[in-house]
Amino acid sequence: MKIISLNINGTNIQAPGQIQNLTNNVTPFGQNLITLAVNLMLLVIILLSFAYLVFGGIKLITSRGEKQQFENARVQITYALIGLIIALLSISIISLIQGAFGIHLMGF
User: pLDDT for 35-84, tens place per residue?
Assistant: First the structure.
């Protein structure tokens, strides 16, 4: 067992009880924090990609046949779809990591 302490001029200062013991397991608080962060990042990425896709569709509709505006909207839609695909693939990769290491990173 390892104990965290701070040594200042020969005086040991112990860490609080809950963080004093270091183990190979993540504490429930740490695991919940990681799960929350992963879920929040995935949610933000998916929502931003979807919003970018919708705005690209609006730009496509309002381009009125102008070639440059149509091309810009098409590129925006393509990038939004690539972003959504990457976000969805990241969920698969996280699931693979969970299974391989026996850890829980997503709330679903």
Answer: 788 888 888 999 999 999 999 999 999 998 899 999 999 999 999 999 99
CA dihedral of 100, 106, 107, 108, whole degrees rounded to 10: -70
Residue 38: partners with Cβ closer than 8 Å, 6 or more residues away: 94, 105, 106
Distance CA 42, CA 36 (A): 10
CB 76 within 8 A of CB 82: no
DSSP character at residue 24? S
pTM greater than 0.90: no
Tell me the CA end-to-end span of the chain in Å, nearest whole number.
Answer: 33
**Residues whose CB falls within 8 Å of the CB of residue 6, separated by 6 or more in sequence, listed in order:** 12, 13, 15
